[in-house]
Amino acid sequence: MARFFNRGENPNALAGLFLLVLLAVFAGPTVLPELIATAVPFVDEGVPCGRLRDGEDRAQHQSLLGREVSNDPSDPPISLVARSEGINADSSITVSVVVTNQTLGTVPIVINEGGLIAGAGDARNGFGVLFGQTAVSPAGEGITTYPVERIRLLAPRQRCVYRATIQPGTLPNPSVLVAENVTFIAYYRNNAIGQIPFVAGNIYQDQGLWVGTIQSEPAPVNNS
Asked: Is the separation of the CB atoms in 108 and 151 below 8 Å?
């Protein structure tokens, strides 16, 4: 083994090892999770979004690059992919939403304790799904500052996943799930940067959240 890594005996060994490390660093956060999720049923492409590190002490600790990439409302730092596992035997639907940080900065995102928002009538900010609709209202909740438990930090190029089973009775129009060729979209909405009350010694006066609305491409409800 020592002779294998000896540069005089095998000059290509270290170069090959270096390329493998690069593959793990650059392909791992983007390509490998998707390949694994495709090859192995019931394996998601990332950690659950609710298990990400929370946004504690945003007045003192923020990524400068994360603030920069979150500062442009016309250029979302994250992207969304919506997927359905089809209608279940009890008429519920199981969906997943894959959230990807497309930048090299750590991006703070807004979540909700109850998971995905379902239905156009819910004004909360965060991640949700809409069935039979192609656009989400940009109007969100009236909030100035988010509590720590509603902010999660998505690392550079990292993915997280929402997976939820939605009962038709929780939707404004339950019959939409059985309509022919119906689709649904995933969305992320936030209308507040998150103000931090002034305290002497604070480095930041806001929570550094991206403001705007993002939605996925439409996905079919029933994949069978």
From this structure: yes
Q: Which two tokens stand for residue 194?
A: 């998150």
Q: Which of 38-52, 107-121, 124-138 has the lowest mean pLDDT?
A: 38-52
Cα(15)–Cα(199) distance, integer angstroms: 52
| Residues above pLDDT 70, as percent of the chain | 79
167: amino acid identity, one letter: Q
The structural domains of the chain, with segments of one domain joined by +, span: 1-43, 46-220
Tokens for 18? 């270096």
- Terminal Cα-to-Cα distance of the chain (whole angstroms): 51
What distance in Å separates the CA atoms of residue 209 and residue 195, rounded to the nearest whole number? 10
- Residues forming beta bridges with residue 100, ordered by sequence position: 79, 159
Q: Are 70 and 204 in contact (CB under 8 A)?
A: no
Measured distance CA(140)–CA(8) in Å, rounded? 64
Read off the pTM. Answer: 0.79
What's the DSSP call for residue 19? H
What does the block give as tokens for 40?
Answer: 């192995």
Q: What is the 3-state secondary structure (H, E, C) of 57-103?
A: CCCCCCCHHHHHHCCCCCCCCEEEEEEEEEECCCCCEEEEEEEEECC
**Alpha helices (H) in 40-102, listed in sequence order:** 64-69
Whether the CB-CB separation of 139 and 190 falls below 8 Å is answered with no
